[in-house]
Design brief:
2 helices; rod-shaped; single chain; two-stranded antiparallel ribbon; mainly alpha
Length: 117
Amino acid sequence: MRPPSGVCYCHLRPAPRGMMIMEDPEKSVRLAELAQIEQEERDRAVRIALGKFNFVLHTSMWLSGCAFLLVLGLLMRSALPWLMIPVALWTAALACHGYRAFVRTDGKRNTQARSHD
């Protein structure tokens, strides 16, 4: 079996010179469709990984911000109840971010299950 025109099976990149070209255009079209599907799956996996990484960054900023507000509240006791409002709102935002990062992505369940025919 020869590789499709201009495409190497091993990495789906342009074939080196001297490689034989496949004569069946349907197979090369199907291979191009499969390559596009694989690229979309890789892009989705990258989006999911970046969402989780950004959540970790958000959590670290939340921890440092809450620690600062707690110290500020301990130094100024009269301000302590009022400092809990931004902490509560930020915690709600962090919870929404965690939900989006780990449970839902792009309006779909964040699962790695694949359904191919």
